[in-house]
Amino acid sequence: MAKNVGRLFLFRSTAVTSSRQLSTAPATAATVIKKMNENSSLFYRLATLKATTNTEVSEILDEYVKNGHTISRFEIIGFATQLRKFKHYDQALQLYEWMDKSKNRMNNADHAVRIDLLAKTKGIDSAESYFNKLEKSGKTKKTYGALLNCYCGEAKLDKALELFQEMKKLNFVTGTLTYNNLMSLYMKVGQPEKLPAIVKEMEEKNITADGFTHSLLINSYAALKDFESMEAVMKKIEQNTKDDWFMYGNLATVYVNAGLLDKANATLLKMEKQKHFSDPEALHTLINLYGRTSNAAGVNRAWENLKVFFPKTGNRSYLIMLLALSKLGDVNGLEKIFKEWESSCSTYDVRLSNVVLESYLNRNMVREAESLYKSLETREVEPNLKTCTLFMNFHLKKKQVDLAFEFLERGVSKLSQTTTKWFPSQESVSAFFELFEEGKDVDGAEKFCKSMKKINRLDGKVYDFLLHTYITAGKVEPQMRQRMKEDGIEISTETEKLLHTVCP
């Protein structure tokens, strides 16, 4: 996919370059196509660099130039833009560093992007240091704004406020984006009461609030449970803006979260009556929120509209519909939509089958769940961690520890030497050890610990569970203390008391 995106971008940038060249030395179509192919190949190498080798971006670019190719500043920026979209921030930063060392002139926009990339790859201190080292001419509205965005992203309130005041003195606070960043920061640090004053300041300075500003303000009033002020904001928006489905969706979400389901449904109906759905996300929002309000009729209406406006219904749309039907407890509807998707999908997405599996298991429909799981094997679809978690937790609830452990092992095999914060969850770990203690199953507990060690999840908490199992079983393990030291486990006072029993 990266290769195709790069090709599309490079076609535009190369076409511009070629039109300039034609004024002095007309380029043939073959020359233009050759340049496009060269640049697309180069972009693909840069985009896949992280996953393949330890080679630096500079090495690839130096080699490219050494082999007689040329690369312009605009092409470098184009590469960096695409790499940022794919979250390849390190490679994008290295592109700017190479451009700087290659004596390409860095403008204010380039400096701003570099500040953002430094914060993402090397931390906020590195971004701050780069900004401070800029010459006075480089400290502009764009670079100040980039650093403020970094502070807001990292929730550095004091530094953000200090920089904001400095920007005011320099007359750099002239647009909506700066205020939106500050408002987002206040929401992030739990100070929603600050937002109304900021919006008032914007009005006094004739700075027009955008949709994001209004959403933040609505959310701030919702956090303060000031629904009257929130509704006043919405009325003002309705007077000045038509067909803003995002605002209605945001307001309905607030009502749903507050448990005001009648108001949520009334707001969704207003949104639905606009009937100008050029964005599938509007219909996704309707399906999701109608599902959360237990409004089956609303869910089905939005789904039918989605298929009318977007006949080529994709996996994501089906996933959102299945999740809504699952919330409604509509198993028949769930099965119908799932079969419809299975019969027409070009790419099988295991997330959709997981929704159905979860619904089956929650209703103790074991035979149906097992049948669906076997169908994945027939289709040669690889179950993911979520699939393993569903079956593991189901068998834990049924106290079927051997079957639960089987699915734990399947999940562990997918992770290898990596780790996740959610697999297995702390609740699942506790459930396993409750069963081990209940059955005085030391061997099972030891097998579990070996699995946790494979994914770097063997910690003091797991060892405490293991020690409790040994104590319950009335068994000792003389080497336990040594094992814990070898595994780098810090032995707490409480753990030491347990060890005296297990490791005399």
UniProtKB/TrEMBL annotation:
Keywords: Repeat. The keyword Repeat applies. GO terms for molecular function: mRNA binding. Pfam families: PPR (PF01535), PPR_2 (PF13041). InterPro entries: PPR_rpt, TPR-like_helical_dom_sf. The keyword Transcription regulation does not apply. Belongs to the PPR family. P subfamily. This is Pentatricopeptide repeat. It comes from Dillenia turbinata. The lineage of its organism: Eukaryota, Viridiplantae, Streptophyta, Embryophyta, Tracheophyta.
